[in-house]
Amino acid sequence: MELTHVADSGRWLALNDEVQIGELIYQVEDNVMTISHAEVEPFYRGNKIAEELVLAAIQQARENAWKVVPACSFAKIVFERYPGEQDVLA
């Protein structure tokens, strides 16, 4: 599995042999990243792929000195699971 950032459309993709199996959608405004959606194809769920997508977005926010608003429920769960990432919460 490979994570790919598509900056011009505000997405992170999870690819398996070049086939999209997961997606995270975000928007950035005034140095605040809002994670609005994270989803993985049903067959691949339970493998922490969505979690990896959210963590990649958090890392991107940290590298750009952005704050993060976890608007999607799964992104909120990831922040609960990883208290060390909460420093970027808006």
TrEMBL record:
Keyword annotations of the record? Transferase
Q: Where is the N-acetyltransferase domain?
A: 1-90, 4-90
- List, in alphabetical order, the Gene Ontology terms for molecular function in this entry: acyltransferase activity, transferring groups other than amino-acyl groups
Instruction: Write down what this protein is called.
Output: N-acetyltransferase
